[in-house]
C-alpha cells in the first residue's frame, strides 16, 4: 500500500468509529458495549494487515477459505476472527482453528456437526443463530418462529456456547424497514432469554452493515459487521 493509502485507511477507520460512538451516544448506550467487526472479504491479506494496524482487532470473513488464508498469514497479529458467512459441514474442522465466533449458524444439522467437532478438542464454540429477518428467500437463516425450538435443542449440545442472534436487514436502503427488522430481532432475543442457563447465554445481537449500522445500534446491536465503507477510496 502507498503512504496515501495507509493514511486513507486510518481516516476510514476513525470515521467509522466516530459514527459508531455517535450512534451509541444518541441512543444512550456505551460504545464499549458495541463491537466493531471489520469485514475483510473485499481485500487481500496485506490490506487486512494494515486494517489491523489501523486499530481494528475484530475481523469478519464470510468465506471459510478466506478465513483460513488470512488467519494463517496474520498469525503474528492480535486478531479475533468472526465467521459471518455460510459454513458447509466439510469446512467446520479447519474453521474452528481460526474462528472465535460463528455468526452464521443457519441449520440444526450444522449446529450438531459443530458440536461434534468441537467436542473432539473439548472446546465450547461460540455461536450465534442466523435469522432470516428480511424474509428474502435468498437469505440463509432460521425463521423467527423456529428459534425457540432451536434454542431448546442447542441446550443439549454442550460443546456449543450459544450467545445470541445474527441478522441482515433487507438490501435496498429502506432504513425504516431495516429498523423494523432489527427491532424484531431484539424482541426475539429478549423473549428467548428465559432459556438462558448452562451453554445458552443469549445477549449478543449481530446486526447492521455499512449502510444501516447506526440504525442497528439504535435498535440494540452489540456487534456491527462493517465492510465496504472501511475501504472507501481503497478498492
Ligand atoms: C459483506 C458482509 C457484511 C458487510 O457488508 P458491507 O455492506 O460491506 O458493510 C456484513 N455481514 C455479512 C454477512 C456480509 O457478508
Keywords:
single chain; 235 residues; alpha/beta; TIM Barrel; 8-stranded parallel β-sheet; 8 helices; binds pyridoxal-5'-phosphate
General description of the model:
This protein is an alpha/beta fold and 235 residues long. The protein has one domain: Alanine racemase (TIM Barrel, Alpha-Beta Barrel). It is 40% helix and 20% strand. An 8-stranded parallel β-sheet has the order 7-6-5-4-3-2-1-8. Helix 3 links the parallel strand 2 and strand 3 (80-83). Bound molecules: pyridoxal-5'-phosphate (PLP). Pyridoxal-5'-phosphate (PLP) is lined by residues 39, 41, 62, 84-85, 168, 209-211, 225-228.
Q: Helicity level, as a percent range?
A: 25-40%
CATH homologous superfamily name? Alanine racemase
Treating each run of at least 4 consecutive H or I residues as one helix, how many helices?
8
Given helix and strand content, the structural type is alpha/beta
What fraction strand? 15-25%
Strand order of the largest sheet: 7-6-5-4-3-2-1-8
Given the C-alpha coordinates, what overall shape results?
globular
| Unreliable segments of 5+ consecutive residues | none
Average predicted confidence as pLDDT = 97
Q: CATH class, anyone?
A: Alpha Beta
- Any ligands, ions or cofactors bound here, and which? pyridoxal-5'-phosphate
Q: Main beta sheet, described?
A: 8 strands, parallel
Task: Please state the oligomeric state of the protein chains shown.
Answer: single chain
How large is the radius of gyration?
A: 17 Å
CATH topology: TIM Barrel
Q: What is the H-and-E element order? A: HEHEHEHEHEHEHEHE
Question: What is the distance, rounded to the nearest whole angstrom, between the alpha carbons of the first and last residues?
Answer: 12 Å
Into how many domains do the coordinates divide?
Answer: 1
What is the total tally of β strands? Answer: 8
The appropriate CATH architecture is Alpha-Beta Barrel
Amino acid at each position: 500500500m502507498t503512504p496515501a493509502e495507509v493514511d486513507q485507511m486510518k481516516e476510514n477507520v476513525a470515521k467509522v468509529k466516530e459514527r459508531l460512538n455517535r450512534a451509541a451516544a444518541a441512543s444512550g448506550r456505551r460504545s464499549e458495549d458495541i463491537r466493531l467487526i471489520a469485514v475483510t472479504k473485499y481485500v487481500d491479506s496485506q490490506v487486512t494487515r494494515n486494517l489491523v494496524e489501523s486499530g481494528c482487532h475484530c475481523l469478519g470473513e464470510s468465506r471459510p477459505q478466506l478465513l483460513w488464508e488470512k488467519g494463517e498469514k496474520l498469525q503474528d497479529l492480535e486478531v479475533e476472527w468472526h465467521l459471518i458467512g455460510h459454513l458447509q459441514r466439510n469446512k467446520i474442522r479447519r474453521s474452528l482453528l481460526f474462528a472465535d465466533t460463528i455468526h452464521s449458524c443457519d441449520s440444526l444439522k450444522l449446529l450438531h456437526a459443530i458440536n461434534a467437532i468441537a467436542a473432539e478438542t473439548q472446546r465450547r464454540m461460540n455461536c450465534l443463530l442466523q435469522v432470516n429477518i428480511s424474509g428474502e428467500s435468498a437469505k440463509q437463516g432460521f425463521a423467527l418462529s423456529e428459534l425457540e425450538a432451536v434454542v431448546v435443542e442447542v441446550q443439549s449440545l454442550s460443546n456449543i456456547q450459544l450467545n445470541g442472534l445474527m441478522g441482515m436487514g433487507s438490501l435496498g436502503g429502506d432504513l425504516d424497514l431495516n429498523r423494523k427488522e432489527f427491532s424484531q430481532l431484539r424482541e426475539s432475543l429478549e423473549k428467548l432469554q428465559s432459556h438462558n442457563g448452562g451453554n445458552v447465554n443469549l445477549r449478543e445481537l449481530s446486526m447492521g452493515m455499512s449502510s444501516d449500522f447506526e440504525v442497528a445500534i439504535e435498535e440494540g446491536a452489540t456487534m456491527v459487521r462493517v465492510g465496504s465503507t472501511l475501504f472507501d477510496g481503497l478498492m
